[in-house]
Design goal:
cell wall biogenesis/degradation, six-stranded mixed β-sheet, binds adenosine-5'-diphosphate, alpha+beta, magnesium, D-amino Acid Aminotransferase, Chain A, domain 1, about 25% strand, Dna Ligase, domain 1, 11 helices, ATP-grasp, ligase, Rossmann fold, binds magnesium ion
Length: about 350
């Protein structure tokens, strides 16, 4: 019997469009001999709709896809998914949502209450990974190095800009200023001098009342994909993000709107270092209590120091996204990655008493 899989995309976060593209990828690749996909879109204002599979979910003439507020509505509550008075009888949910209201434990909590299996990390791991200011001290406690930095809440900023600016001066420029719960580099600025600091904090606060200031780490950006295969967290080959030097850092444009960014797979780094990064990626995954999948992003400095940048519990998931590409290079194709994730979901070790 095929399992009915709800693929949920869109959502209220700034990564709405990227989520739609990921869903398009999964719909095209899911093994239909095992799974029957049902597409559910969440509009930017948070309304849920049952969508036709043919809903356009790719970039068209440079225009990113979004979920329109038309069509049959869907509800999810403790009694499960319903549409037009009927239970949709969903066996597994693939919450392909990035950022707040999706990747952060909120939908995971709703699914726990409804007692429905879902792909990926559970409530706590999702919530902790989403907020970089909480994830970083946990990584550090597990012996995984992080960049020096501090948090700037909008309320503190309103009270005392001068002393916060002084703290940034002490870190030394450049610093990176970013939303604590951001993604896709939105609201992130490389601040090259004290004069640019105020504008950068205000920009980060447009996305999140909690901003982070971090010392710049100079080095390669190395990513590793962790996938739970038959109950064991495995690390992929590591890849190096190669950004066109016209970009200051791996910003939104470099990530999505330009073909100038590539990933070198495997990264041409020393085997020993790459093994070390793979081991740290699995450690990071376990340290936050993750399940299913995560993309773990590191910096590798010129003197071979490995510093973790962040862990994404629902990374970009189109066929050409980094996560599936890293697994393809490791010998597990996109369709099989999806099958592993849906099988892992059925074990429910992401549940409230799981990992
Ligand atoms: N401390 C830092 N040092 C150097 N570069 C950084 C630092 N923090 C962020 N960046 C740059 O900004 C990008 C986005 O920051 P990141 O923390 O990964 O947020 P996001 O969740 O938006 O991807 C990184 O890929 C990197 O290019
Ligand atoms: Mg990142």
């Amino acid at each position: 019997m095929t399992k009915r899989v709800a693929i949920i995309c869109g959502g209220r976060s700034s990564e709405h469009e990227i989520s739609c593209i990921s869903a398009g990828g999964v719909l095209a690749a899911i093994d239909r001999s095992k799974f029957e996909p049902i597409l559910i879109g969440i509009s930017k204002s948070g309304k849920w709709f049952l969508l036709d599979e043919k809903t356009p979910l790719s970039i068209n003439d440079g225009v990113l896809p979004t979920i329109a507020e038309t069509g049959t509505s869907v509800t999810l509550d403790a009694a499960g998914f319903h549409s037009e008075g009927k239970n949709l009888n969903i066996d597994i949910v693939f919450p392909l949502l990035h950022g707040p209201y999706g990747e952060d434990g909120t939908i995971q909590g709703l699914l726990e209450m409804a007692d429905i299996s879902y792909v990926g990390s559970g409530v706590l791991a999702s919530a902790v990974a989403m907020d970089k200011s909480f994830a970083k001290p946990i990584f550090a406690a597990h012996g995984i190095k992080v960049a020096a930095g501090f948090v700037v809440r909008a309320s503190e900023w309103a009270k005392d800009k001068a002393s916060i600016q002084k703290q940034a001066d002490l870190l030394g420029y450049p610093v990176f200023v970013k939303p604590a719960r951001g993604g896709s580099s939105r609201g992130t600025t490389k601040v090259k001098s004290a004069a640019e600091f105020v504008a950068a904090i205000e920009e980060a606060h447009r996305f999140d009342p909690k901003a982070m200031v971090e010392q710049e780490i100079r080095g390669k950006e190395i990513e590793c994909a962790v996938l739970e295969i038959d109950g064991v967290a495995k690390a992929s080959l590591v890849g190096q993000i190669k950004i066109d030097p016209k970009y200051d850092f791996y910003n939104f444009e470099a990530k999505y709107l330009d073909s100038a960014t590539t990933i070198e797979l495997p990264a041409s780094i020393d085997q020993k270092i790459s093994d070390q990064i793979r081991a740290k990626a699995v450690e990071a995954f376990i340290s936050l209590g993750c399940s299913g999948l995560a993309r773990v992003d590191f910096f590798l400095t010129d003197n071979n120091e490995v510093i973790i940048n962040e862990l994404n519990t629902m990374p970009g998931f189109t066929a050409t996204s980094v996560f599936p590409k890293m697994w393809a290079a490791t010998g597990v194709g996109y369709t099989d990655v999806i099958t592993h994730l849906l099988n892992a979901a059925l074990t429910r070790n992401n549940g409230v008493l799981g990992n």
